[in-house]
Amino acid sequence: MATTAELFEEPFVADEYIERLVWRTPGGGSRGGSEAFDPKRLLEEFVNHIQELQIMDERIQRKVEKLEQQCQKEAKEFARKVQELQKSNQVAFQHFQELDEHISYVATKVCHLGDQLEGVNTPRQRAVEAQKLMKYFNEFLDGELKSDVFTNSEKIKEAADIIQKLHLIAQELPFDRFSEVKSKIASKYHDLECQLIQEFTSAQRRGEISRMREVAAVLLHFKGYSHCVDVYIKQCQEGAYLRNDIFEDAAILCQRVNKQVGDIFSNPETVLAKLIQNVFEIKLQSFVKDQLEECRRSDAEQYLKNLYDLYTRTTNLSSKLMEFNLGTDKQTFLSKLIKSIFISYLENYIEVETGYLKSRSAMILQRYYDSKNHQKRSIGTGGIQDLKERIRQRTNLPLGPSIDTHGETFLSQEVVVNLLQETKQAFERCHRLSDPSDLPRNAFRIFTILVEFLCIEHIDYALETGLAGIPSSDSRNANLYFLDVVHQANTIFHLFDKQFNDHLMPLISSSPKLSECLQKKKEIIEQMEMKLDTGIDRTLNCMIGQMKHILAAEQKKTDFKPEDENNVLIQYTNACVKVCAYVRKQVEKIKNSMDGKNVDTVLMELGVRFHRLIYEHLQQYSYSCMGGMLAICDVAEYRKCAKDFKIPLVLQLFDTLHALCNLLVVAPDNLKQVCSGEQLANLDKTILHSFVQLRADYRSARLARHFS
C-alpha cells in the first residue's frame, strides 16, 4: 500500500500513473533493460494493484463518513449556542428599553424642576437688577456718582450697559419732575458714547481687532453706533490712495476691509456696503468730475475717451466688488452707485458722440481732398439729378461735360481706415455707455453717419467723379481710370461690410433696428452697383471705341487684296497686332480690378463686344485668295487673344468666326461641304452668304452657281 501511495503525484495524470506502475514492475518494460517483456507478470501486477486500490478506497470512504458525522454533530452544537445567544440578546434588549424609559422619566423631572427654579430665579434676578438700577438712579438724583463702575475707567463696558438702561428708563419719566436727572443721565450717556468712540478710534489706530470688536459690541445699542461705523470708514481710507490709479486703490481697500470687517462688527455686510458707497459718492465722483468737466466743452474727443475709460474702469471695479457680501441685491446697489456718478454725462452722451463723429469725419475727408488740391464739386440732388440718373441708366450717355481726373480715383484706403476706426471706437463707446433700451437706436445713428461720410461723401462722390471722367466712346487715346475706381471701391466696401457685421450687428441683432439697417445697407449697395455697372459699361464702350480707332488707322484695304498675291510676307496684319496687344492689356486690368464672378461677367461682355467689332470690321473688305488667308491668320490671332478671357462663350464665338473666314479661301466646289460642317451648320444662311459675298471672285458665274 505504501508503494501504491508513492505512485500518486500532484497533479494526478492517469496515463503517467500507469506508466510509472509499468516501469516499477520487473519485465514490464518494452525496450531496453536486463529483463524481457513479460505480459503475465504485468497482468498479475495490475490485478494486485487494483485490489490495493480498492482497499485504499474503502479505507478513505470510512474516513470521509466519520468526518461527515463529526461535522454534523458540531453544526448542531453551533446552532444550539446561537439560539442561546439570541435569547440572551432579547433579555438584554428588554433591560435596555426599561433603562431608557427610566432615564426619560428622570430627565423630564429634571427639566420640570429646572423650569420651576428658573421661574423663581428670573424674577429674583430682575428684582436684583432693578434694585441696582434704582441705586444708580438715586446717585444721579443726589448729583454725586459714588459707584466704582462710574469712577473706574476700566469698567467702562459695565458703565455703558447701566447708563444705556437708565437712559431708556429716563425717557419714560415725566419731564417736569425729573428734568434735572434726565439731563444728567443724558449727559453721562453722551460722555460714555464719546469715550467709547474714542476708545474704538484708538484701538483701530493700534490695530487691536479684539478691542475694536468689544467696543463695537457695546456701542451697538447706542445711538452713536453709526458714528462709530463712520469713524471706522474714515480711518480705513487714510493713506489708502497713494497710487496714481484710484480704481486699483479702491479695489485693494475694499479687499482689505472685507477680510477685517467680519471680525469687528456684527453686521459686516452693512458696514462694507457703507464703505463702498462712501468711496463711490465722494472719492470716485470727485475724481470723475475733475477728469470730465475740464474737457467737456473744449475737447469733445478727449471728453469721450475719458468718459469711456472712466466708465469702463468703474464698471470693472463694480465687477470686482460683486465678489463681496453686500446684502441681498448687490447688483442693484452697485448699479445705482455707478448711475449716480455718470447720469449727468450719459444723458446727452449720444449727442456729443454724433456731433464729434460728424465733425471728425468731415475733417478727415476735407484733409484728404486738400492734400490732392481738389475742390470738391457739388453733386446735385433732387428731381433734376434723379432725371439725369434715369436717362444715363437707360441711354448710357454721358450727361454734362467730361472731367479730366488725371488718373486720380479720389478714393483713399487711408481715409477709409480712419473713418472706420473712428466709427469702430464710436460703436464701442455706444455699447458701453448707452442704456440697453437706447442702444439699438444710438447704434443706428452712428451707422447713418458712417453711411453719409464713407458711402455717400467719399465712395459715391468718387463714383460720380469717375463717371464724369469717362471719355466718350469716340475719343482717341483715352485713358480709362474707372476700373481703378471699381477696384478701390470694391476693396473699401468689403471693409465697410466687415465693420457692419463685426461691430454694428451685435448691437442691433435683437431689435427692430436690424431690418432698418439691413434695408439701408441694401439701398446703398444697389445704388453703388448701379453706378459701377454704368461706369463699367461706358468703359467697355470706350475700349471698343479705342479698338475701332486702331483698326481704322492701321487696317488698309490692300491688306486683304494685295496687288502682288505672290509676295505677301506677313503672318497677320499690323492692325491685328495692335488690337490684340490692347485687348490683352485691358483683360489684365479687368482681372486686377475685380474679383469673383464679376470678372467673368465683365470679360464675357467685353468678349462679346470684341467679337461683334471684329465681325463687323471684316464685313467691310473684299478678299482675294491670299487676303482671305491673311484674314484667317488675323482671326486666329484674335482667337488666341480670346483664350485669355477664359470664357467658353467668347472662345466659341471666335471659333465660329474663324470657320466663317474659311469661306473666303475654300475652293468653290467645296463651299457647300464647308457650310454644312459642324461649326457652320447651325448658322443662318444669310450670314454664310454675307461672308461668301466678300470674296473677290464672288461674281464669277462658277462661284455663284456653286453657292446658289
UniProtKB/TrEMBL annotation:
The keyword Coiled coil applies. The keyword Zinc does not apply. Pfam families: Sec10_HB, Sec10_N. One of its GO terms (molecular function) is small GTPase binding. Residues 50-88 form a coiled coil. Residues 39-147 form the Exocyst complex component Sec10 N-terminal domain. Keywords: Coiled coil, Exocytosis, Transport. GO terms for biological process: epithelial cell apoptotic process; establishment of planar polarity; exocytosis; Golgi to plasma membrane transport; homeostasis of number of cells within a tissue; non-motile cilium assembly; protein localization to plasma membrane. Residues 158-707 form the Exocyst complex component Sec10-like alpha-helical bundle domain. PANTHER family: EXOCYST COMPLEX COMPONENT 5, SEC10. This is Exocyst complex component 5. It comes from Rhinolophus ferrumequinum.
